[in-house]
Specification:
By secondary structure, the protein is an alpha+beta fold. It has a single domain, classed as START domain (Alpha-D-Glucose-1,6-Bisphosphate, Chain A, domain 4). It is built from four helices and nine strands; from the N terminus they run αββαββββββααβ. Strands 1-9-2-8-7-6-5-4-3 form a nine-stranded mixed β-sheet. The radius of gyration is 18 Å and the shape is globular. The C terminus is likely disordered.
Length: 248
């Protein structure tokens, strides 16, 4: 006998539906072309980057801690006539992260940032539609790159990188994600009903378009999106260096 869905599950579905409507409303009225390559089967090249052991504690939520398959997604926008370069664009992300997200449905809570903006070990909370917020931590920052990992309580388990580079008289901005649903319920919403997946897609598309606007340029040929699905994320934590003693 099939059990009826719980009140909590119904509430979660209702909140996610509302969040999807709010984010998608503006997205539908945007004329920017979206190039969605469909979902393809991934391979070993889609596994997340290794993280150094010192960057991982018991609050970090790695892809192997999640539930269900891992999704490797890449969002890319090429920007013409930008007034800043790749390094400066990532600096803007580090200093003004909240200005890149769709503020009507996503809020950003930050601690007191240092002069250099977001940096290694800094944490921020992405407040999203539904019952989950998205705590993340910076694990790497370099010229043209900001790398975050999810923390306990996030709806996903994995990593995200923001990158920019100058090439062929254009400024290219990318968001690359490696993540599994954090729980069975998120797996249902993401992999089966596709609600969480669409919210994520719309949010990162908006992030890319904000990057173009903040750079002072304009998108060339819209936003390109690729999605690859991998049944197992593999090991994310890098093994200790050769000769390093393990803790007893």
């Amino acid at each position: 006998m099939t059990r009826p869905p719980s009140a909590r599950a119904l509430t979660v579905l209702a909140r996610w539906f509302l969040g999807t409507v709010l984010i998608t409303w503006r997205y539908l009225w945007d004329t920017t072309p979206l190039h969605r390559g469909g979902e393809r089967q991934g391979d070993a090249s889609d596994r997340p980057p290794h993280l150094p052991p010192e960057a991982v504690d018991d609050r970090v939520q790695l892809a192997e801690d999640g539930c269900g398959p891992m999704f490797h997604r890449l969002f890319r926008v090429r920007i013409a006539a930008a007034e800043i370069d790749a390094y400066q664009l990532i600096e803007r992300v580090c200093h003004d992260f909240e200005n890149f997200v769709p503020s009507e449905v996503v809020g950003i809570r930050l601690g007191e940032l240092r002069e250099q903006g977001l940096d290694v070990a800094d944490e921020l909370l992405v407040e999203m539609p539904g019952p989950w917020n998205g705590p993340v931590r910076v694990v790497h920052r370099a010229p043209g790159c900001l790398h975050l990992v999810t923390l306990r309580g996030h709806m996903e388990a994995g990593q995200v990188q923001f990158r920019a580079r100058d090439e062929d008289d254009l400024l290219t901005f990318e968001i690359e994600l490696w993540a599994c649903p954090a729980s069975r319920l998120v797996h249902l919403l993401y992999s089966r009903l596709r609600l969480a997946k669409e919210i994520q897609l719309n949010m990162w598309v908006r992030f890319c378009l904000s990057a173009a606007a903040i750079s002072g340029g304009r998108p060339v040929d819209g936003v390109h999106i690729s999605t690859r699905r991998l049944q197992s994320p593999g090991r994310t934590l890098a093994p200790p260096a050769s000769g390093t003693k393990k803790a007893p």
